[in-house]
Amino acid sequence: LALFGTDEQKRQYLPRLASGEWIGAYALSEPDSGTDALSALNSAQVQKLTNAQVQSLTTDQLNALGAADLREFAPAQIAALTTAQVAALTTDQVLAIETADLRALGNAAIDALTTDQVSALTTSQFNAFSAAQLGALTNGGVAAMTTAQAASAA
Question: What's this model's pTM, rounded to 2 decimal places?
């Protein structure tokens, strides 16, 4: 407020806040940051995560990563994602995974893809799956395949 408030806002709020008549508060809720601003990771930190650190990311920390941050993951980091973490990814995050990096996902992680995630995959991403990965899709994943995806898998 002191740095970025308008003159009117400063006149209205600062005297009462400074005198203690009012108590100020800070609230944060951002789509890519959640409510824990200190736990957010930047792209440079994402690139330095070890596989063990990737596996220890909470769902909230993983969901706080934007699609651009997820693009920074190396294939080994993608492979390190647990099935629970894969299932928790947003469709935007799944779409952000480099096509070639999808091959790093294990069959259990492929099976963990939700129907929304499967149907959101681009045809080129879908084509990156190996035959074993395609075989790992459960009936729900197969049912979620789009016509284009099914044609490319044939």
Answer: 0.64
| For range 132-136, the mean pLDDT | 82
Q: What is the pLDDT of residues 67-89, one digit of tens each?
A: 778 888 888 888 899 989 998 89
What is the CB-side half-sphere exposure of residue 102 using CA atoms within 13 A? 27
Q: CB burial class (10 A; 0-12, 13-18, 19+) of residue 113?
A: buried
- Secondary structure letter of residue 90 according to DSSP: -
Instruction: Answer yes or no: is pLDDT of 2 > 60.
Output: yes
What pairs with residue 34 in β-bridges? Answer: 30
The answer to whether 117 touches 95, Cβ cutoff 8 Å, is no
- Does residue 15 register a pLDDT over 90? yes
Half-sphere exposure in the Cβ direction for 17 (13 Å, CA): 10
Q: Would you say residue 22 has pLDDT above 70?
A: yes
Distance CA 98, CA 116 (A): 18
Residue 31 tokens read as 């789509």
DSSP conformational letter for 29: -
Q: How far apart are CA 43 and CA 107, in angstroms?
A: 27
Which of 97, 105, 99 has the alpha carbon at shortest distance from 132? 105
Distance CA 101, CA 124 (A): 12
